[in-house]
Amino acid sequence: MGLDPGALRDRLDAGLACLGFDPELAQRERLIDYLMLLARWNQAFNLTAVRDPHEMVARHLLDSLSIAPYLSGDEVLDLGTGAGLPGLPLAILDPRRYFVLLDSNGKKIRFVRQAVLTLGLDNCEPVQMRADVYRPAKKFATIVSRAMTSLAELRAIALALTARPARLLVMKGREPHEELADPSLTSNDVVVHPLQVPFVEGDRHLIEIRFH
């Protein structure tokens, strides 16, 4: 595993250009700082199966940022954030929005809290709690998730956590045809967006479930 910040920055800059983003230098540095912190913690705490920082640029940073155009509202919930994905990269890219990073895993939330502190992010709130019992004072216009469970189960959880209108954005690999056939997911409420993530081979899709 090589932690070469220069090579990581070059790969990130190329990927951001492909996605059509041009963040400030301080934001790019924060993205790299987050990745390097994740790589170091990952050696001891096994936070992600991706071990190579060079690969993390694409599979964690660019993959997370690819859904930025689909966010709406001022507050976003990252449901099952794990090591802060996709919430932390999105929060770095979009400091005007406030992100709640929710996960029940204490080890992962400890890392997220450390990352928020180290990076000086004042638009993030890490919360350790199970999603089915989390009841925030203010509901969300957008919920994002890296497919922590089935679409139907995520939709059921999101119903109690969203204002109206709202959207649930679920990141998937291949288009989940069987899950989309669930009766609770009507065609009028679901839009499938193919995603093009720089340097990531294979299919990537964003499943948008709309609440009216």
From TrEMBL:
CDD domains membership: AdoMet_MTases
Keywords per UniProt: Cytoplasm, Methyltransferase, rRNA processing, S-adenosyl-L-methionine, Transferase
Alphabetical GO biological process terms: methylation
UniProt keyword DNA repair present: no
Family membership: Belongs to the methyltransferase superfamily. RNA methyltransferase RsmG family.
Native source organism of the sequence: Thioalkalicoccus limnaeus
Binding residue positions for S-adenosyl-L-methionine: 80, 85, 146
Pfam family, one: GidB
Catalytic function, reaction form: guanosine(527) in 16S rRNA + S-adenosyl-L-methionine = N(7)-methylguanosine(527) in 16S rRNA + S-adenosyl-L-homocysteine
Protein name from the UniProt record: Ribosomal RNA small subunit methyltransferase G
InterPro entries, alphabetized: rRNA_ssu_MeTfrase_G, SAM-dependent_MTases_sf
Main function: Specifically methylates the N7 position of guanine in position 527 of 16S rRNA.
Major location category of this protein: cytoplasm
Alphabetized SUPFAM superfamilies for the sequence: S-adenosyl-L-methionine-dependent methyltransferases (SSF53335)
Cellular localisation: Cytoplasm
Listed GO MF terms: methyltransferase activity
Enzyme Commission numbers on file: 2.1.1.170
